[in-house]
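Please review this one.

:::
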Amino acid sequence: MKKNCVTVISARFNESMEQWILDDMIQSTMLPYFAWQSDHNSDVQFERTFSNPDYYGRVTVVANFKNSVDHAFFITSFSKLPTKTLNPLKLA
């Protein structure tokens, strides 16, 4: 892994689910990390990738930080990374 990067999500998902549902679940799971980015005015990019290592698909989201101070502060703010499950979709 590149310097100043941390895996935020590494979660399995059922590939038969609709793409919009998966996207919403990923967004819901990422909300605390987006809030942290906004609150700390941090220069970070989140990149997601999909793979199929076994029967289920896997989504991985990696945070790429521009500076090491933000990277270190993020790691101390979220000590239990990567998240291994996606938040369920909340229908109104």
Residues 5-77 form one domain.
